[in-house]
Amino acid sequence: MGICWGSPAPADNPTPSTTTQISSGISQTTSNATTSRGSNYSANSHFSAASGDPGYPDGQILPTPTLRIFSFAELKTATKNFKPDTVLGEGGFGTVYKGWLDDKGSSKNGSGTVIAVKKLNSESMQGFQEWQSEVNFLGRLSHPNLVKLLGYCWEDKELLLIYEFMQKGSLENHLFGRGAAVQSLPWEIRLKIAIGAARGLAFLHTSDKQVIYRDFKASNILLDGSYTAKISDFGLAKLGPSASQSHVTTRVMGTYGYAAPEYVATGHLYVKSDVYGFGVVLVEILTGLRALDTNRPNGKHNLVDWIKPYLSERRKLKQIMDNRLEGRYPSKAALHISQLALKCLAAEPKHRPSMKEVLETLERIETAKERPREPRNRSTHPMAHRQGQQPLHHRSPLHPRPDGH
User: Fold this and answer.
1) How many Å separate Cα 373 from the centre of its chain?
2) What is the pLDDT of residue 55?
3) Are 290 and 389 in contact, with CB atoms under 8 Å apart?
4) CATH architecture of the region 3-164
């Protein structure tokens, strides 16, 4: 979840209550819901369904959420009573557990559909708001590069969200994790992940009613068994500005190192504020270094500030490429991506490309099929001082620990 700067505005911080209404983060009207004791969720929407073939390969926005309502008892059974060894991670919202929905006719313990269950910390005001936003946004969004929200539970003070389980964990874990269970990603997979994430973000930005994701970062990019990237965690998502406006003004929430400078400084949130965050992730993919790491030497804590001068030339770029790639990457493609990252990181939002343009550029790079070069005898890599890379302590909620649980 995000880190909040400044004081919260009342409009952005609804208070949970025992009533059965959820104020929609999408519609200007109030959507009605009852508790999860067997009734359906309904909501009004200003979104229209996307056009396309019946399979909707390019995604769609549903007029109302189509979510399964789970009972708390079901989820206790699925997670073995929220057993500690099923914990996948923890965040500002609460704890996330791995669970199993038993298939009909199967009596084998631990069989069935694997799910991720996010359980609200009952004392978390931030958690209620983000639970609400997740239902209102992700409950209506359907796209191959967005994590699928399967359903929710609201019983008494218990608030939970149920997602598809992502077998390969997060991009963050693969880039920065340590240990025998964490394998470095080869170049081709890194490019595939960047393209998938760009498709998801472009879909949000080009929908009938623009959605600003607001917390784009490596920990929120989850990977399925084929390393298909899916954007998760819509707790901070906001509707984009109306046609007569360039931005929306909101309290500043996000994650240090990824948040766009204009947003941090003013609270003015643009669609292209997400593009800045995407540029930061591109730099992380290239370098294998975290966006923010106070364990690095002075002057190198903020990755973008430090690395920007290295992104424009092939010779300089070579000095900062992830040494775990062992030189096996196409130098021309890497330079094109670093130059794209520079455009995304432009100080002024209007100078950044749209996510549609970013996606098209990445797809052209992939189509070029430049083969990764085989490295010559390598001397000590100039980035071998990865002392700033710490093992993951706070994993993004929906992905497994390195031990596979």
Assistant:
1) 31
2) 53
3) yes
4) 2-Layer Sandwich (3.30)
What confidence tens digit (pLDDT) does each residue in 315-327 have?
999 999 999 999 9
Is position 293 annotated as part of the catalytic site? no
Which spans in 207-259 are helix H? none
Q: Identify the CATH number of the domain defined by range 169-388.
A: 1.10.510.10
- Rounded CA gap, 15 and 304, in Å? 37
Of the residues 103, 208, 215, 233, which is catalytic? 215
Transcribe 134-198 into DSSP letters: HHHHHTTEE-TTBPPEEEEEEETTEEEEEEE--TTEEHHHHHH--STT-PPPPHHHHHHHHHHHH
The tens digit of pLDDT for each residue in 318-355 reads 999 999 999 999 999 999 999 999 999 999 999 999 99
For residue 206, the 8-state DSSP code is H
Burial (CB < 10 A; 0-12, 13-18, 19+), residue 264, is: middle
What residue has token string 């206790």?
Answer: 76
Q: In Å, what is the CA distance from 174 to each residue of 135, 199, 227, 382, 393?
A: 28, 20, 11, 21, 14
Domain ranges of the chain: 3-164, 169-388
The CA radius of gyration of the chain, in Å to the nearest whole number, is 21
**pLDDT at 401 > cutoff 90:** no
Amino acid at 348: E
- Torsion sign (Cα): 307, 311, 316, 321: positive
Burial class (CB in 10 A: 0-12, 13-18, 19+), 355: buried
| CA 152 centroid distance within chain | 19
Residue linked to tokens 């399979």: 55
